Structures are given as structure tokens and as C-alpha cells.
Amino acid sequence: SLRSWRETSLWWTCASAVHEPGSFEAPAMSGGGGPEFRTLLLYWVTVYFSNVFAKYTKLSPLLYYLIFGFVYGNTGVVEHSDTMDFLGEVAITIVFMALGFEENVTRFVTGVRQAWGIAIIGAVVPFLCGFGVTLAIFPDLGLMPALMAGLAVTATAVSLTMISLQSQGLATSKAAIGIMTSAVLDDVMCLALVAIMVPIATGEAEPTASGILWVLGKCALFFIGIALLHLLFFPKIRKKGDLQKPRFAVLKHIPGLRSIGVQNMFRFDHGGQGTIAVSIVCFGVGFAATAFGFHPTIGAYMAGLILEERYFDVEPEEIPLTKGEEDVPTSEDGAALPENWSNSFEHIKEILENAAFSWFGPIFFLNLGANLIINGEIFGRIIGPALVYFAALFVGQILSAALAARFVPGGFSWAESWMIGFGMLGRAELFFVVLGICFIENEVFSEELNFSLTIAAILLDLCVPVTISLYKPYYLKMESEDEHHFDEEAVLEAIARAEKAEKSKERRLLKTTMVGLEAADGEPVLRRSVSSLSGAPGKAVSKDKVASMGATAVMSPRPPEIVKPATPINQAKPVNDGMALLGTPVTAWDDEQATVKT
Fold it and tell me: What pTM does this model have?
């Protein structure tokens, strides 16, 4: 029989392998216990103990991933492997997919508007630092190696920062969004510079206007494609209310396309295949990103970013899909879904985060550390230049990014600005790409310059988790103080804008300025410097009296502990600079949306 023949054949091949060593190999079995398998097991053991050390030292586990990986690589415990490099690329792509999945488009776009200064200034200053230090320490190498050294240290390794922020519970903070959006803009500029300078440095070509425009055009096409996915191909018009939304202004006029969307893919098998469906979409966009010159992580992040929670609404098994489905509320309406419906978004996010931050994502950082090999023979000659590079980049990067976040164009508090400065320190992907081109593939860099930059990058990478972990308590304290700080100038400016807007309505605006808080019998109070609510100017006025008189007040963000009246809110208008002009007292401030809600 066929079964007997298979059993006999298996016995004979195994016996032959035992009696004649080397005469038979079983690829499916022999590959499982190879060096990659042992390396993976070692990495997972290291991940576990890194988290143990991180808990007791109150530092990011990323620090230990890099240190252990560096030790493994330089002591020969782990050897370079293309398989581990591939697993590392998959791991970091999953990390960025999970990070994008946590974020939403509105916050990201807002971050881009505020982060262009960080991207430009935070890239120009490190470039000048790398260029200047190279000319000063290695003057004999000439101008081109100095330019390429400046280019190498320009791009930020945002992967290190986002993992560090995630381990500290700050992955969705405003500072994290500023870092991520500026890193995307930074990548665009660096890709353009690489396309221009690498052919010149290697002597392969001369820079041309058409070549530069082609690089910039590819970047623009990529983001246009993301916008089309977000506005046309991913959404599905599910109910009559969707037709009135501005984002569906074009989609509603495209029959067929408006009824497809990705929701049908995510809710197949009642959401049971949602995780693999999300992975297909994100890895697919990541693969497409490589055609435009981007790393797959950028594509995976952007794909995760535009996957909305409403796409994961799952109908019950007993209800067939009918035309009446379009009137069912969606998860974005703010109201609960029908009792027999569910949403798989949070479940899928939990699975992705577990893979990205617990057991698979750390492989990238351990492998990154293992690939940072230092030549011990020249270590004594390069440690001095390496420390100079490190000091210049450490100071230059932090100051440039922090000051840009605060003032160009602004919008970040001092606490957030310094966090952004620390978060922009890392150097990884593009840095090592440039080093590979200039040292391994071509002889642009000398051995001393190459290893000096490598050691400086290692020190900068180690500083990312350390500085973020050490700064976190001060960051939270400063953020808390900012929440309760009332900027008198900003208040008066907002009042002036409000007065101008109300003149046409001939309404008298009762102006009150919050210039401080006092506690009287445990009750928060308002101290006004203008108008008269209770008699003499400057006298403290209780919140209940303000509520009863319907006074208009201008206050800084997030003051739920200050204004908690029993009467419901009637009207609330958002005003620029994070202020809120309130027609009547408010009940709560929504941190995530930065709007007043009833």
C-alpha cells in the first residue's frame, strides 16, 4: 500500500543517514536546529531578562536590548546572519504597523503642521555638526567625505525613540506625534540628499535637476497614494449620514467603489481573520513604499494610521447583510453599536502590540546591536574623535529640535519640546546605509572615520532610552504644571479676538481673566482682574457664582477640576492657541480631541 511504501522509504532514508554520515540531508528537519534557531532562542531569553532589569532600574528595556546585542556581536556569541537580518526587518515593520494602528489621521496631520520646523532645523544642525567635526579632525580626507559624514548623521532613528516612548507609556503623547511626523518629513529630505550626494561621492554621476525632481516627485506620489487610499479605497459609505460628510464628497459619486472598502475584508469570519487582514494591508503598503524610495516601516505606519475603528464593526452571525445595513450606527458616531454588533479594533490592536513590543519587535534591536562590530585594533585611535562627534551631535540635536519644537512654528510646551529633543538623538537605518555605501562599497570614508561615526552612533542610540527614562518624571511634572498654568497675555489676546468677533452682534462681553487659583474651603475659585462680579475688583469669585451669573471666561486647556457646575453646557466654541471661549461653564475637557465636551 501507499502508506507501507512511505513508511519503508522513510525508514530507509533515516537508516542511510545514520550509517553513512553526510550522505543525506533533510532540509526541513536540519534547518530547525541551526544557528538562527539558537540565536532566536537567545534573543527571547534576553528580551525576558531585559524587561526584568528594566523594571528594577526604571530604564527602558531598549537600552538592554542594544547593550546585550552589542556584547553578543562583538564577543562572537552571535554571528551575522541574513536570516536574522530578515527577521529584524519584519520585526521593525510590525512595530511601526502597531504604532500607526494606535494613532489617528487628525492628530497626525496636526502634528505635521507643527513639526516641519523640527524636521528642517533638527536635520540641518546635525548635518553641520557632522560636516564641521569631520573637517576639523580629518582635514586630509577632503570636502566630499565631510559632506557624506554630515549626511550620515542627519536622519533620526525614530524606531528607537518610539519603542522607548512606548515602554514609558508615552507612545500616543503629543511629543511622540511630533517626533514621528518630523521623522517622516526628515526621511523625505534625507532621501533627496542621498539621491543627490551619493552618485557624486562615488563618482557615478553628476547632480541633475531632473534627478532631484524625480526623487521629490516619487515622495509626493507616495503620499498622494496614501491620501487616495484613505479617502476613496478604504472607506465604505454605510449609511445616509455618511453622504453629508466632507470626506466622502468625492467617494459618494463613484458607484461600486463607495460600497466596497476594506471593512468587508476585516469583518470576514466575524472578525476572526482581522489580524491577518491588517497585516496584509500594512505589509502591502510597506512593500509599495520601497518602490518610492522609503523604508517599508514608513509604509506600514501610514497604512496603520489610516485604518479607522469604524472599519472593524462586525455584524452578528444571525443577521444577513442587507440594504438595511447602511442605517446601522458605526463606532465613530459616539453612540453604542446595536446590542448584537461588536467591534474587533481593540482586540486586533492588542494582538499587534503584543507582537510588536513583547516578543517579536525586540528582535530588530538585539540584531541591530549585534551588527555594530568595532575593530579593537584601532579602538584607541578613534575613541577621541568618536567622543567629539558624540558631544557635538548630542548638544546640537537636542537644542535644535527642542527650540524648533518650541518656536518654529511652535505649538509644543517646554516639557514636550525637550522630550522631542531627546527623542531625536537616535541614529540607525539611513546612517548605516550611508556608511555601507561610503566605506564598504566605495572608498569614500577612511577606516578611522567610519568607526568613529559608528561609536558615536552607538552612544547616541544608548542615550535615547536613558534620557527618556530619566526625563519622564520631570516631563510629567512640567506637563501637570502647564495644565494648571494660566498665561495672562494669551488670555487677554483671546478676549480681544472674542470681542472683535462679537462686535457685529452688539453684545457686551463680560471679561474675566484667570490670573491664579486659590482654594477656599476646598473649593476652586476664579480670581478676576477685569469686570465686577461680586463688588471690588480682584476679589475671589466662587465657581458657583460664576455659573449662576452665566459669566464668560477664557481659560487654559484641561480645567475640569476648576469648573464643575451642576448646570449643563449650552454652547462651547474652540479658540486658537489651545484656549476655549465658554458661553457657560463646562463640565469636562477632552484631552485627546482638545475640545470641550458635555
Answer: 0.67
